[in-house]
Please model this.
Amino acid sequence: MEKINFADLTWVMIATALVMIMTPTLAFFYGGLVRKKNVLSVLMQCMVILCVISIQWILFGYSLAFGPDKGGIIGGLEWLGLNGVGMAPHETYMNTVPHQLFMAFQMMFAVITPALILGAFVERIKFSGFIFFIILWTTLVYDPLAHWVWAKDGWLNSLGALDFAGGTVIHLNAGISALIFVLLIGKRHGIEHPRSPHNLPFAVLGAGFLWFGWFGFNAGSAGAANTVAVSAFINTNTAAAAAGLTWMVLDRIVNKVPTMLGVITGLVAGLVAVTPASGFVTPLAAMAIGTLAGFFCFLFVAKIKGLFGYDDSLDVFGVHGIGGLVGALATGLFATKTVNAAGNDGLFYGNPHQLWVQFLTVIVAIAFSAIMTFILFKIVDAIIGLRVEIKDEHMGLDLTQQHETAYTLYD
Amino acid sequence: MKYVIAIIKPHRLEEVMQELDNAEIYLRTVTEVLGCGRQKGVTEVYRGVKEVGNLLRKVKLEIAVNDNFLEPTINAIIKGAGEGEIGDGKIFVLDLKECIRIRTGERGGEAIG
Model:
């Protein structure tokens, strides 16, 4: 049996807490961007996901994602209710910290992934349908994909796909699901005229703490207090900075003025894109990845979305889908064993095969995520319904779904 | 000249503004207010949130019009705000003595349009 290293244990436990705070933080990022009649509904959805998936993960989610492999496709049910998942380290999964700590770290990823999607369908989602969709989606889309990419014998993992902290499993997956979801649920009413975010400072607060939490997300994914964690930490910061600046410059060129909303959208795009690469690349490569992410995400959010006219309300596809795609492919370009011997070299280090593997992984993830989201949407929409009545939408989800209001007028 | 004050449900504002646009009435001022009518807000609690006592959140529209635009304005507000329910709101019409456009100093009907 492997021995517990207490420096590793301490870092991973802190990192777990950092990733946990990203979901409430995301709530404020998204909440600030919606109209004020819907802010509580967004906060509520994020907090409920935190509750629901925390339970799902312990009961069966962890077992499906990481349990004993069944043909590379799915984990078995041997670890239901954490049966057999104890304090002794697992031989593969962060083998110097308690197995339960690895489980908890992964739990926070399973929580934030469905929370990312909700930015796409805010202001029109029916709460009851939402909960059922989220449980089904996490169980039937996230858990299998996590297994394929991260589990020891997952089939994409066996091909040699590199995804350090979840560019494909989390961001691309969430982004594609978001796109399919909004195509099915349709546009919001009353957005013919562009609306300003109701509380941009909330969104800035959210983005700032997402950046902070992302250190746990990426550097924590090293699974130990080691040099790869330090690399991931620096790369995370560098890519966020480069992408935020890139967006600001593009805003200045295209819209004639640099905006706060632009900078925070850009830096999140950079964080997304560096996620799969963070433990495999140099800081200068991270800078390039951030710049590419800023550019391509800007292109999608500011230009291409308008051409198609779909209502991806808070740009989950434009930022997480495109950013995840850029990051997954860039990992195949910039990865180098000099940063992480357990990784691989990318195209720029003489290994074009890695780019091919990354490409294949991306295609598989897109296809799987899109098809499954389509099926789950149709099922939940038919049984429970996923969209509120038009009158409820006009009145706002806070009042109609929760009978609460975020802000009083006087006192 | 008349001064029209309408108290409506907040979620009907978009409709009312659309109806006013359709009637080519573009001048308007909008305020968020609290208020209640004869029912003292009681029957509406299901959809509203009381803030102070029985007061519910409403929107107040203020529109200055020339006399020939009065009926179109009233009709537009009723069409946009009416749900046939308690709490749909009220319209008050006042005589307006004067209207002055600050930029040019124009007065009366000229200044409204």
Summary: The first helix of chain A runs from residue 6 to 33. Chain A has a mean pLDDT of 95. Chain A touches chain B at residues 190, 391, 394-396, 399-400, 403-405, 408-411 (CB under 8 Å). Chain A has one domain: 6-402.
